[in-house]
Amino acid sequence: MAAARSRFGEKAAVLVETTLLRRRAVDRPGKLGPLGPQVSWWLFTGEALQQATAAVVALHRAARLAGGPDVVVHDATCSVGTELAALHASGVRAVGSDIDPVRLAMAHHNVGATTVLCRADALHPVTRDTVVLVDPARRDGGRRRLRPDDYLPALGPLMDTYRGRHLVVKCGPGMDFDALRRRGFDGEIEVTSYRGSVREACLWSAGLAGPGVRRRASILDGNSPGEQVTDTGPDDCGVRPPGRWIVDPDGAVVRAGLVRHYGARHGLWQLDPDIAYLSGDRLPPGVRGFEVLDEVAFDERRLRQALAARDCGALEILVRGVRVDPDALRRRLRPRGARPLSVVITRIGAGAAGRATAFVCRPSR
Ligand SMILES: C[S@@+](CC[C@H](N)C(=O)[O-])C[C@H]1O[C@@H](n2cnc3c(N)ncnc32)[C@H](O)[C@@H]1O
């Protein structure tokens, strides 16, 4: 820093910050590297980079928009231009606007050569006959805004403003989908994960939704197109004791309420109708699963014995439907063997007939 200060004077701090943000944008997995080498010349603020949509997710959305109506997409909260770059890379004609003049100036530097930009409030439409894409701010000066009414701009006014138009809104994955439906949203809710972590829930107005689709899970891994599950597929998934494998479905599938649809597609069944674990004799391609070695009624003493008998060392604990803190349990069990194992703890059966069960498993990888 001292060397930078002697060479660049009072501009040193901002130059160092920009260099560090560029490195973070390009190098950090799940950030902007997949948009191409030009990202290493982009301008950011720390918060703008933090808020930027992961490139893989933005490219997935852009590919979907490329297959939709042949109209211009208006990114009405474009920030420094991530989604605009993804749209451009996917061959979608796009324009951008944002209320923040600093971010807009950065967007001019980053994507201004290919995209028309202007300063505007998303709640006062400045385009007609476009598909409007909005990614409201869900954090502001470090504070997280979890309720859609607290987003900037807020979801309710946004939906009122663009009623009857093609609208795509990126939201937090934890939002209350039932409340959204009660408010009259009749389009598609797409929950997207990237490398196993749930990133967002994207709302597609009815005219942009897949035919008959109300819920979709998109599972992205960055290498292949990813898997999509929708509620238009069959959901005839049985309930049975475990087969060879237990599968903990991707968070996007669980969050979108599509566990049964995913199970039916892959020939899996549920261990309990109310719990998201699936089981089967074959794993879906590329999916990490847990090969069942032992089943014991969940009791710490019995579980400790079962793990010792299997020479358990490193231990991973998965829990659904039972009040257990996996980290605290792992500390108490303290297995000392050599073999890495997993334990899946879950409730099987409802009410008085329900029993907490532990499956000692070998993870597939
Ligand atoms: C989460 S960021 C968008 C990030 C962007 N999609 C990306 O991937 O880089 C939200 C943006 O909304 C902008 N914003 C907030 N309120 C707005 C409003 N009423 N009209 C337009 N933009 C607004 C903020 O300035 C911020 O740039």
Please provide a written account of the structure.
Helices cover about 30% and strands about 25% of the residues. The chain is built from twelve helices and 18 strands. The protein is globular, with a radius of gyration of 24 Å. The strands form three sheets. A nine-stranded mixed sheet has the order 3-2-1-4-7-9-8-10-11. Among the domains are: about 50-170, Vaccinia Virus protein VP39 (Rossmann fold, 3-Layer(aba) Sandwich), CATH 3.40.50.150; about 290-365, no CATH class. Helix 1 (about 1-10) crosses helix 2 (about 10-25) and helix 4 packs across helix 5. It is α/β, with parallel strands linked by helices and about 375 residues long. The site of S-adenosylmethionine has 21 residues, from helix 5.
Any chance you could write out the topology, listing elements then pairs?
Elements: H1 2-8, H2 12-27, H3 46-51, H4 55-66, E1 73-75, H5 82-89, E2 94-98, H6 101-111, E3 116-119, E4 131-134, E5 139-140, E6 143-144, H7 155-161, E7 167-171, H8 177-182, E8 188-194, E9 197-204, E10 215-220, E11 227-230, E12 245-247, H9 251-255, H10 259-266, E13 269-270, E14 278-280, E15 290-297, H11 300-309, E16 312-320, H12 326-333, E17 339-348, E18 355-363
Parallel strand pairs: 1-2, 1-4, 2-3, 4-7, 8-10, 16-17
Antiparallel strand pairs: 5-6, 7-9, 8-9, 10-11, 12-14, 12-15, 13-14, 15-18, 17-18
The structure holds S-adenosylmethionine.
Residues 51-53, 76-77, 79-80, 82-83, 98-100, 103, 121-123, 135-137, 152-153 line the site of S-adenosylmethionine.
Keywords: Methyltransferase, Transferase
GO molecular function: methyltransferase activity
Protein name: Class I SAM-dependent methyltransferase
